Amino acid sequence: MKCKRDRKYVRGQICPVCETPVHSQGQSLNHLPHDSFICSKPWIHPHLKDRNISLDEGDYTLVSPKDFIAPIGSLQMNITDQFHNDASLTCTVQRPSGMENLTLTQVEEGENNVTLLTASISTWLVCNIDYEHIQQLWRILATYSDMPMRLERGLMLSMTPVMIYKYSQIKPEEGQDEIHTDIEAEIKASPAWLMQGEVNFQLDRTTTTFSTLHVKYRSLVNLRIENKVSQSRDRYSWTIINRDNQTKTEQSVLIGGVAELNCQTFGEPKPSVEWILSDNSKVRAPYSSEDHRIVITADGRLTLRGADTSDSGLYHCIATNYLDADVLSFRVTVLSADVEEGEVNGVRLSRPLGQSLVLDCGSTGSPEASVQWILPDHTVLDKSYGNRKLYSNGTLSIKELTSRDWGFYRCLSANHMGVDLLTSLVTVTGEWSGRVTRVDSEGSGAQALVEIDKGIQDAEDSTSKIPSSSPSDRTSQESRTITSDRPYPRLRSTSQVRGLGSSGGRKRGPASSRRIWNRE
Question: Structure pTM?
Answer without folding.
Answer: 0.68
